[in-house]
Amino acid sequence: MKITQHSAVTIHYRLSDEEGRLLEDSFDSEPMLYLHGTENLIPGLEAALEGKTKGEKLDVTISAEEAYGPYHDGLRQAVPLEAFGDIEDIVPGMRFIAETEMGQRPVQVMEVKDDVVIVDGNHPLAGQALNFSVEIIDVREGSAEEIAHGHIHAKGGCGSHGHDHDHSGGGCCGGSGKEEAGGCCGGSDHDHGHHHEEHEACDTPKTGCDGNGGCGCRG
């Protein structure tokens, strides 16, 4: 069976950056599951997998434009510490949902100064070409429910966390392209034990902890 619209696909992958540094590797753990054609993956990787079959392997370089997009300087900004209201112990790595010049986006705290917090709304891999080595483990038809929901219903599959924008956590890296932050894989959005909800900061970040992923999922 070839990978086409609404195929449920299982892959193993290695992801490295432009300098060849390994960023992610699923071969020593669980494979990634995703629903093809529903913006679960970055465009370039999804295009490369189109028409492939179980057992095939491929090495592909995805341009920044077809991966996580260019780096936007305007998404890195200095925010007054007071804008974070009653949120305490703000440290680099924490994530919030904020209003930016490009709309509502997840932002990550990059630096904390005396009275200013530097946040960045770019995906960590924005502006970079990415190298993928992929092995297709399985291809099947997506179920009616999976197609209706736009993701795989399986442990570790894209969407298996309910797109918990507190996500960037587990399964397919970085999330659905339909949701700015989420996906199914990446880091915890309960960083440092904070669940940033019902707070207002960074031009009203309706905090929730997002999820910037990797491994090819949209994020």
From TrEMBL:
EC number: 5.2.1.8
Coiled coil spans: none
Catalysed reactions listed for this entry: [protein]-peptidylproline (omega=180) = [protein]-peptidylproline (omega=0)
Keywords of the record: Chaperone, Cytoplasm, Isomerase, Rotamase
Main location: cytoplasm
Family from the record: Belongs to the FKBP-type PPIase family.
Function as written in the Swiss-Prot or TrEMBL entry: Also involved in hydrogenase metallocenter assembly, probably by participating in the nickel insertion step. This function in hydrogenase biosynthesis requires chaperone activity and the presence of the metal-binding domain, but not PPIase activity.
Protein name, per record: Peptidyl-prolyl cis-trans isomerase
